[in-house]
Amino acid sequence: MKIFKFGGASVNSAEAIRNVAHIVQQNLDTPLLVVISAMGKTTNLLEKVIPGVPSDDDERRALLQQNRDYHLSIADSLFADKGDATFGRLHELFDQLDEVSTRKATNYNFDYDQTVSFGELISTTLISGYLNSVGISNVWVDVRDVIRTNENYREGIVDFDTTRRQANSQLSTLNSQLIITQGFIAGTASGTTTTLGREGSDYSASILSYCLDAESMTIWKDVPGFLNADPKFFSNTIKINEIPFNEAIELAYYGASVIHPKTVKPIQNKGIHLNIKSFVDPQAEGSVIGPFKVIEPMTPLYIFKNNQVLISIQPKDFSFIAEDNLQAIFAMLAELNIRVNLMQNSALSFSLCIDYNEILLEHLRQRLEKDFRLVYNSGLQLITIRYYTQDIIEQIVAGRHILLQQRSRTTTQLLVEDKA
Fold first, then answer.
1. DSSP string covering 319-358
2. Is the overall model pTM greater than 0.70, yes or no?
3. Same structural domain for residues 336 and 197?
4. Per the domain annotation, does 134 fall within a domain?
5. What pLDDT digit, counting tens, does each position of 91-135 carry?
6. Could you tell me if residue 181 is inside a domain?
7. Domain containing 64 — which CATH number?
């Protein structure tokens, strides 16, 4: 079995979905499991209708209607038969989303997963129905019944033993050449929905590749392969043809947008090659992550993370920053499920760089201010350069103020004021 993963950009319109159908149809020589993300920017929209997030009910209703209209307009363009049963299933999901979104806010991370997960349920329902309508027979599977996690909402920890048993009992036995399922989402033993971390559909495909001993895994992107920099920031990028597993793990950890941080390890353990190919040019060679010794070609690699916040933390009393302070700080971060992108400590302060999230940042501030003094800067950019030189650093920073910098032999990270 081969595993394909299609992200939001590859299914953001009727034309894009027709293209996915063509790619899938051309690759049915072996059994194929297709993992699909929410369409376009749906996840961003659904993050705005989580219970307790919108400022008023009118805003919530408008966003929910916008989401419904977006998907139904795509369905109307795709289906020749407007009475297809897929429309009924979509309306059921929209109604369920309306109900979940209007519940009383409880725990933000829990509410997040129960709400945002509808993006993938809607997209796969629509695409599976369309494929069947044009003669590409497939089976739709709810991945929440396959991938098992704990109840660490917004970043579920996978129970691989249970997931492997469920994958083999529910997927390997299906009499279908094509299976359609969701990325990003999973389920707990108690039946609640979890997610695997923002942009976690890559990880979903990797988990299923591992559990099913896949022949290969392919991520379909809007770029020609693994590039040495995001083309949004660089006009002249270089495609990396071969990337060693360990190198890919490092790059993903630092935030390379082409791949989710947790994706590589499961397939590395099984020696499964990960292909990164373009859905714009499906016949092009792309890039391969595998058991290679070095990157080919060798070139500097650049990773940019925007919308960063730098928080500097100092004790209110006369103490230094010590192990007990750090333990308390990390306990708060873990409880709120906030990932630290960069950290540095001195005798008197501890600084950390995190993604900006207004709600979680406010929760963290309220907890920290009980025992610590805080200073923070927002609107920052975190730049990671692998295989750097001083000339490259000076060129990239371009005279901007550096708030924090760390270097190793091969990698430097710089937190700077965003150009915007």
1. ----HHHHHHHHHHHHHHT--EEEEEE-SS-EEEEEE--H
2. yes
3. no
4. yes
5. 999 999 999 999 999 999 999 999 999 999 999 999 999 999 999
6. yes
7. 3.40.1160.10
